[in-house]
Amino acid sequence: MKTLIRFFALFFCITGLISCYSGIPLQSGKSENNQTYEVSYLFEHDGVKVYRFLDMGNYVYFTTRGDVTSIKNDSTRKRTITIYKDSIPNK
Questions:
Q1: What is the pLDDT of residue 90?
Q2: Within-domain flag for 69
Q3: Is residue 41 classed as helix, strand or coil in its secondary structure?
Q4: Which helix (DSSP H) or strand (DSSP E) does residue 50 occupy?
Q5: What is the distance, to the nearest Å, from the Cα of residue 82 to the centroid of all Cα atoms in its chain?
Q6: Which domain holds residue 53?
Q7: What's the whole-number mean pLDDT along residues 65-72?
Q8: Nearest to 55 by CA among 69, 42, 75, 76
Q9: Residue 77's closest CA among 51, 58, 52, 62?
Q10: First to last CA, the chain
């Protein structure tokens, strides 16, 4: 009886681990639930692809490795900075 229980426990553990690492996505293609998000592919480094989309004014970056980062302001925004120099009178 103990052998049978151990066999089934081992079988379920192995089946669970194999299903986690199969690498087959559940679904691929365009988003069906929200068409307002446009995902942009940025680059690939060491086999990891980096994507980004805009969510309520904040850029959200994610990778094929599973990392996700949200940035409040993007550094590619156009800015104008004016620097005023005071003139020093000659003595």
A1: 64
A2: yes
A3: strand
A4: strand 48-55
A5: 36
A6: 37-73
A7: 74
A8: 69
A9: 58
A10: 103
For 15-47, the pLDDT digits (tens) are: 776 666 656 555 566 666 667 778 888 888 888
Mean pLDDT of the chain: 73
**What percent of the chain has pLDDT above 70?**
56
Residue 69 has which token pair?
């980062």
Q: Which residues lie closer than 8 Å to 37 by C-beta, 6 or more apart?
A: 31, 53, 54, 55
pTM of the shown model: 0.43
The distance between the two most distant Cα atoms of the chain, rounded to a whole number of Å, is 103
Query: What average pLDDT does the segment 60-72 reach?
Result: 79
Query: Helix (H, G, I), strand (E, B), or coil: what is residue 34?
Result: coil
Element holding 62 (H helix, E strand): strand 58-63
Which residues does 17 contact at the CB level (< 8 Å), separation at least 6?
A: none
Output the six-digit token pair for 76: 């590619």
Q: Are 48 and 64 spatial neighbours (Cβ–Cβ below 8 Å)?
A: yes
Please report whether residue 60 resides in a domain: yes
